[in-house]
Amino acid sequence: MSPNTRGALLMMGSMAAFTVNDAIVKLLGGSLPLFQIITLRGALTSVWVFLLARHLGALHLRFDHRDRVLVAMRCVSEIGATFFFLTALMNMPLANVTAVLQALPLTVTLGAALIFGEPVGWRRMLAIGIGFCGMLLIVRPGPDGFTTHAIFALLAVTCVTARDLITRRMSSHVPSMVVTLATALTVTGLGLVGSLTVSWVPLDLQSGLLVFGASVFVLIGYLCSVMVMRVGEVGFIAPFRYTSLVWALGLGWLIFGNWPDPVTMLGAGLVVATGLFTLFRERSRRRRG
């Protein structure tokens, strides 16, 4: 199996694991408060990540102050992303929320151009504009279609974009597992603080198994996302990120009986097509460079 094939499979595995986790959390939302779910899932995930990082010998803080500040900023961005995304997920169809997140390659490219001055040609800028139009079709601004939960989905995209841009500025001395563990612990902290405002609900066997399953799928997603960065070409592997939308469509229909309407599907198609074009142009630019 070639490195690119392994990388593509790992990327698809990562997207599948994270989307299954999202579906489980959405299921749990019918019986447990959001902050209780975040706390329980985060605590279990933190334990899994800690044990794995310790096994890999990746638990060290031998990097400079600048990187530590960036790790802290990334954790803050992750807090916002988790809260806004899960709140939107509890109140919107799984496929719709996932489709909005497919705009990330576009928002990261735009953010890198505006903040870091990275060159972006007119073709990619046009693709970003079309992709944003597609995103508007998904969230449907207007008196009948635009809701607070759609705003939360867009805020989640903003927070994840900030997280990814911050990650770009980190040096290679920062172990990926340390960043992952810091993120898991910070999100767990969010859940604990938020739990002070709600009453916890006793877990039955089904809910307990679902929480356990969510933490396992998050760990699988983390593992695959770390391993995928070490094999193959990023330009070849990155487009397979969009397989998460396929999983979201299937799980949304199978578990929740939801299927997006034609306008939402059109918007999702525009976002995915322009995102793929942006990745293709980025790959071509790097090859020329």
From TrEMBL:
Domain EamA, chain residue ranges per copy: 6-139, 150-276
Bilayer-spanning residue ranges: 7-28, 34-57, 69-89, 95-117, 124-140, 146-166, 178-203, 209-228, 240-256, 262-280
Pfam families in the cross-refs: EamA (PF00892)
Name of protein: DMT family transporter
Gene3D superfamilies: 1.10.3730.20
This protein's record includes keyword Transmembrane: yes
An annotated GO cellular component: membrane
Keywords: Membrane, Transmembrane, Transmembrane helix
